[in-house]
Amino acid sequence: MHDGPGCRTNVFFVGCPLQCKWCANPESWINKKHIMFADKVCKWEKGCRACRNVCPHGSIKFADNGEPMINWNVCRECETFDCVNICPNNALKQCVKEYTVDELVAILRRDFNNWGSEGGVTFSGGDPLIQHEFFVEVLKKCHERHIHKAIETSGYAKQDVFLKIMKYIDFAFVDVKNMDKEKHKQGTGVDNELILSNIEALKKSGWQGRLVLRQPTIAGYNDSDENAYKLIEFMTKNSLYEINLLKFHRLGSTKWDQLGKDYEYNKHGDVSEEKMEHLQKLYLDNDIVCYIGDNTAF
Ligand code: SF4
Ligand code: SF4
To answer: Which residue in 64, 159, 273, 275 has a CA-CA distance of 20 to 30 Å to 98?
Structure first.
């Protein structure tokens, strides 16, 4: 309901060119099948060792106190997932599914009658631009069937790829995480030049869709007035008049644990309501509509 107009089906692609330190979907970083491990439902204390016994790569060991220890470097290269099939408690899960273009479009067509007149599909992730060859074929089939298509993207792709995909998109959320090139790189792993230049190129291309910029707002990273004023300048210069500020949250933090990754934002990053409203006012005072959280007007 909050990822585009009306009621929608969301498709989450795997693979992302960014690796944001606060990411809520880190399971979508790698463009291949891989496992997640939920230690809270693992029955190692009851003596279960089933995963260790079937793993052909010796990736799971148990510490002296009995706790499982996973060699994540080995598991990330695995293609058999024997442990997932044997785990009696769903503590180990394989978190990626593969579809052909036709299989995915069949699911979207199944949902067609549930969307109402305004809804459609939102392609998210990860970043759908990573699998652009597959994605464009899905988009063409949606287009033929007059399905409304939205995207949530980092905007980080070669410009010809970005513009080719956007040709089929009706509504776009494109993230601008930080206007400072170096800070963008510190937080996401890549700088912002390609993203900003893709947004500019999209505006100049005569694209007829609706573009809302988006910023996950993180204390000490991008919640300064200075960053807001730079973004306002960029938006005004490019005739962009809508932004959605998302308040920092930790809903994805357990997934970092389940992937064997260290999450840096356990104790910081929170932005107060007052700060969010202050930032909103800066945009509004400069004639840019600013939505906070899931309040984007569709
Ligand atoms: S994902 Fe593969 S390598 Fe890792 S524990 Fe399971 S079977 Fe072993
Ligand atoms: S098979 Fe599942 S429940 Fe048993 S030890 Fe392994 S992860 Fe835990």
So the answer is: 159
